[in-house]
Design a protein that fits this description.
single chain, 486 residues, Alkaline Phosphatase, subunit A, ten-stranded mixed β-sheet, four-stranded antiparallel β-sheet, 15 helices, 18% strand, globular, disordered N terminus
């Protein structure tokens, strides 16, 4: 390596720092990992950002860890985003590049159990050749549990305990009624490989909290663990009742933490089915959304308290983010757009990382370009686990960047949702949302207001060329189901 002296000195200092940090972490023992994912939470929906939402546990995480402001997920809605964070692979590479859901309930159709059993929402799932985080960590001695939203297949061979998790309690598809645990009338809660209706009537955030705390009681302090808690809060409720479906269900004790809403419902002639329909007002929807977030936050606080009581919180990697941009009552400001779009508001999400024993600095804001694709290789690195052989990963070990030691190696990120495109190269981003398209300089225009396509055609051509190169790479990748034809 022929480096000038000044660069060689810097290189040696950085290398020595990284080696010292790794040695200190290993001396503390393998870290535990707590991964918390919310559902459709807005970019600005953290209490510490000052919009009035109540999130003391998430604020605590941010004050004791590093908050990422330039963090992206790989798709602007549920299923592909979740497959990517678990595999470290783009949706177009791992095969989950659209939703595993049925469209008929969007128009008021209620499935019978026999009819539902043969629909795509029931039989679709992640390709069984894909390797996910718990399977990578298991050889390193980790116990793993998932409590909440799976969304990657409902058949036994597709469920979490068939993919590397040791324990599972939750629902298997994109959304449920928070109390009946049904999706448009179909029971959806599972324990392990078996459906269950034992807890019907109990608010599901309380159930996921209960199961996560049970897992911690069994494993925290005894062996390294990977605990994945993918809440469905604050996703809109899945119900054929327009009044329920048009908002987020939340317990009254959390609704009362917010200003009272004078008018809870309204009648509308513009609804996807069954007009006229009684739906929640925008004020009620905003209040309910915030209450659901605060309830989830309380559950997160309970988990942190248990880890602290066991004196293992500081050597537990805690990562929190939303699976995609906010919708409904969410606040995505200052970003443009929302869930299901490739504007920043659909793909850039709040993210917090806490790990004091791993030299993650408290109270820091990190603006480096990072994504959910980085989770699998980063968790494996921290745990001393081997990465899967012969698997192409689209992420990397983010710890040097999280610690502020090196800039992010990531210079590009790409998104494709049907005919919607997003391509980021450095500070430049090209968006194509149907007929609405533009080029934006995110270093000065995070809100994507000033289209530079005409004034910077050479930049537009460069970003489009990089997107075409990425798309060709995805098309040439070893094919995976369930959508791809092979």
């Amino acid at each position: 390596m022929n480096l000038p002296c000044r660069f060689l000195t810097s290189y040696l200092l950085i290398t020595a720092t990284v080696i010292a940090t790794v040695a200190e972490v290993r001396a503390a023992g393998p870290p535990n990992i707590l991964l918390i994912v919310s559902d459709d939470q807005g970019y600005n929906d953290l209490g510490l950002l000052g919009n009035g939402i109540i999130t003391p546990a998430l604020d605590r995480l941010a004050n004791q860890g590093t908050r990422l402001t330039n963090f992206y997920v790989s798709w602007p809605a549920c299923t592909p985003s979740r497959a990517s964070l678990l595999t470290g692979r783009y949706p177009q590479r791992n095969g989950i590049y659209d939703m595993i859901r049925n469209e008929a309930p969007d128009y008021g159709h209620r499935y019978t159990p026999d009819e539902y059993a043969v629909t795509f929402e029931r039989i679709g799932g992640m390709d069984d050749r894909e390797i996910i985080i718990p399977a990578v960590l298991k050889p390193a001695g980790y116990k793993s549990g998932i409590y909440g939203k799976w969304d990657l297949g409902a058949l036994r061979r597709m469920l979490p305990t068939s993919r590397g998790f040791d324990d599972f309690y939750g629902f298997v598809n994109t959304g449920i009624d928070y109390f009946t645990h049904q999706r448009y009338g179909v029971d959806c809660m599972f324990r392990g490989l078996s459906p269950t209706a034992a807890d019907k009537g109990t608010y599901c955030t309380y159930l996921f909290q209960r199961e996560a705390l049970r897992f911690l009681d069994e494993h925290a302090g005894r062996e390294p663990f990977f605990l994945y808690v993918p809440f469905n809060a604050p996703h809109n409720s899945s119900s054929l009742d327009p009044e329920i479906r048009s908002s987020v269900q939340a317990p009254d004790e959390f609704k009362t933490l917010y200003p009272a809403v004078d008018v809870q419902t309204k009648v509308t002639d513009k609804y996807r089915y069954g007009t006229p329909a009684t739906v929640a007002t925008s004020q009620a929807r905003r209040r309910d959304y915030r209450a659901a977030v605060t309830c989830m936050d309380a559950a997160i606080g309970e988990m942190l308290d248990v880890l602290e009581q066991r004196q293992i919180l500081d050597n537990t990697i805690v990562v929190f983010f939303s699976d995609n941009g906010g919708s409904g009552g969410a606040d995505n400001s200052p970003l443009r757009g929302h869930k299901a779009q490739t504007w920043e508001g659909g793909i850039r999400v709040p993210c917090i990382v806490r790990w004091p024993a791993g030299d993650v600095t408290a109270g820091v804001v990190n603006d480096e370009l990072l994504t959910s694709l980085e989770l699998l290789p980063s968790f494996a690195s921290a745990a001393g686990a081997e990465l899967p052989a012969d698997v192409v990963l689209d992420g990397f070990d983010w710890w040097p960047t999280i610690r502020g030691q090196t800039p992010s190696p990531r210079k590009e990120m790409f998104w494709k949702r049907r005919d919607q495109i997003g391509a980021r190269v450095g500070r430049w981003k090209w968006v194509k949302m149907g007929n609405d398209t533009g080029l934006y300089d995110l270093s000065t225009d995070i809100a994507e207001k000033n289209d530079l396509s005409e004034s910077r055609p050479e930049i537009l051509a460069m970003v489009q060329d990089r997107y075409a190169h990425w798309l060709a790479e995805m098309d040439a990748a070893e094919p995976r189901g369930p959508f791809r034809d092979f």
